[in-house]
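Illustration 12: Glycosyltransferase involved in cell wall biosynthesis.
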Amino acid sequence: MAERANHILICFHDFNRGGTERIALGMARRWLDQGRQVTILCGARTGGLEDTVDPRIEVVELDPPLPRSLTSRLRLGPAMAPYVERLRPDVIFLPGNFHFPLIPALAKARGRAALVVKISNPVLPEGAAARPMRWLLRHFVRDLDGFAAMNTGLEAEIRAIAPWVNVSTLYDPVFLAENPAPHRPAGDRLEILWAGRFEPQKDVPLALNTIAALNRITPARLTMLGEGYLRPRMEKMASGMGLGDAVRFMGHVPAIDPFLADADALFVSSTFEGGPAVAVEALAHGVPVVSTDCSHFLRDIMTIPEAGMIVPSRKAELLAHGLLAVAQAPRPTPALLRPLIAHLAADPCADAYLAWFDHVVHDRAASMGN
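Figure caption equivalent — predicted structure in token form:
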């Protein structure tokens, strides 16, 4: 049995333009450069990210394919199990919370491979659902060789649930432009940028209510980047609120850099986040961030006032005042903000993951008597 991760198997549902899939594909290129074999096992070759896959990666699709549905994740693990047995990887990597339901079936099929999962978002919901989810997680972690937590807060959360588990804080890499475009102030109104998938987690209604509240104070425009099944409903909501040109929906864009150059602030309206990469990209461009208190990761990196503001309230009026204060403050330079995110450079983060893979593979080999 190998004592390092020579063959890395990444399992995910499809090539949806989600952050966890995009990050995994980016790190895979570095692992290939380091001489490792990388295979992707997916339910279906759908979504917009497949054109970014390095040609050195073997992509294996289920036959027949298993596209996303309300119950597809429950069927995905058992469907993948025979493929895992045939591929014989050294480590199986599940790149986010979304893929937790795969754990039981893959654990039975993995043979001598290590099985690891990235924690990409808070694992416990609020309210009554927290207790059964805690029990379920304790059940799942018995089959795992390790958790990779995206920030120190998520690591603490996992340790509180299962103190015996192997968990490490491993930051997601962020692929940043070397020379960001200079800021282009609009002058006659504040330009606020929002980017993400149109789904409940992102709380788009709060973003719309906040820009409405901000416009009651000063002229401002909210530019929204991204797609998702809620987009038509949110466009209808914006129209019904009479926002007019105070909000524009741009859909998926090939690069965020031109929009960051125009922005006075980035707004994060989410109910929860693991590590919003768009906030890191904003800081790298010298764009301050205003966010709801949704992410341990943002608390880790927004450690100086010039980085922006984490607003403890989810009231639109208070968020609007936060945006006003940050957007009207003297513009920070990228040189001031980049040190906050220097540890998120792409190659060091991917290398840290690879070293961790090697560690868990070695430990599993030792536990099985090699």
